[in-house]
Fold this protein.
Amino acid sequence: MNNLSNLNKTWIFDLDGTLVKHNGYKEKEELLNGVKEFFDKNVKEEDFVIILTAREKKYLKSAKNLLQLNNIKVDLYVSNLPHGERLLFNDKKNDGLKTSYCFNLERNEGFEKFLK
């Protein structure tokens, strides 16, 4: 994450298996390892954070509460999405700055590897 520009960012995260334990709403919501530290270290107040999920809206309350309790900044939740791939298209800046990146994590892996 050290090679990113100083510009404000739009962060897009999947919810289940990325930030919280997959299907945790069925038992107990659990923040994955390194998530809070990742947000504290990388996400600025001026940034915009979008959470994507296939969960139905009625199952979001417990995750929202957990993220709020851990001071995880979220500006927008988008729920009821398809279970398939998520595709992002973005243009590069004229100076060559790449304006999109993708990181595929193993389910429930957490963010510890991004804290090094």
